[in-house]
Amino acid sequence: MILIGVNRSPYTRRVAITLQVYGIAYEQRDLNGFGHREAVRAANPVGRIPALVLDSGETLIDSGAIVDFLDETYGGDQPLTPRSGAERRAVLKIAAMMMGACDKGLQAAYHRNHTPKEKWHQPWIDDCMAQMTNALAAVDAMVKPDDPYLLLGRLTQADITAFVAERLGRGLGIDTDAQMPRLRAMTRALLGQPAFLSTEPTPPPA
Ligand SMILES: N[C@@H](CCC(=O)N[C@@H](CS)C(=O)NCC(=O)O)C(=O)O
């Protein structure tokens, strides 16, 4: 399998962590949608990462669809997103909140990165960041003391998405240590697990 995307992307890292938790061997192509437009668009016409090229040659796009495939194929009787019922809905709800938080944070970042500063519309940036902050705070409130995981007493896609969203929020300037201390402690602890540590993005060369 070939994972197309850089782990700086929360969506790509979510897939990379999932692949590693399931013990799946894969190669990674460190491409991004802005710096490698043609290569990324060849894999995904929308020009977004991640994409996952299967050994059959089939290409999957969108992190949600990719992790769904990985759960279906490799999740056995304990997939990272449960297969049905209230447990599935609970995991999917947190994943939706955390992926939505990433979408909002990136909307603000893209606006700043792709618009001349004199044309920045600060109320829009502030609103996007407030939406991201609210979502992270809502998950922070769900973290239970002495439980390393958000739900079901085990690692689920809720934890993985919370981990990547907290990391993005911190990178975008949200003080998660101060504002979401329980979530921050949870993500620090998750970083002790190989799938999280080994997917840390490599810093760009100096
Ligand atoms: N819903 C998609 C979002 C993917 C996404 O927005 N990826 C970003 C990187 S973090 C991207 O490739 N952006 C390039 C662009 O939007 O042109 C997913 O979950 O995979």
CATH fold group of the largest domain = Glutathione S-transferase Yfyf (Class Pi), Chain A, domain 2
Distance between the termini: 30 Å
Percent of residues in β-strands: 5-15%
Name the assembly state. single chain
Radius of gyration: 17 Å
- Element string (H = helix, E = strand): EHEHEEHHHHHHH
Describe the global form: globular
Mean pLDDT: 97
Query: Structural class, from secondary structure content?
Result: mainly alpha
Gross CATH architecture of the largest domain: Up-down Bundle
Compact summary:
The chain is mainly α. The protein has nine helices and four strands, in the order E-H-E-H-E-E-H-H-H-H-H-H-H.
Question: How does this model look, in words?
Answer:
The chain has nine helices and four strands, in the order E-H-E-H-E-E-H-H-H-H-H-H-H. It has two domains: 2-79, Glutaredoxin (3-Layer(aba) Sandwich), CATH 3.40.30; 85-195, Glutathione S-transferase Yfyf (Class Pi), Chain A, domain 2 (Up-down Bundle), CATH 1.20.1050. Strand 1 (2-4), helix 1 (10-21) and strand 2 (27-29) form a beta-alpha-beta unit. The chain is mostly helical and 206 residues long. The protein has helices at residues 10-21, 37-43, 63-74, 85-114, 122-140, 157-171, 176-179, 181-190, 194-197, and strands spanning 2-4, 27-29, 51-53, 59-61. Helix 1 (10-21) runs parallel beside helix 3 and helix 1 runs antiparallel to helix 6. Residues 9, 11, 33, 47-50, 62-64, 99, 106 line the site of glutathione.
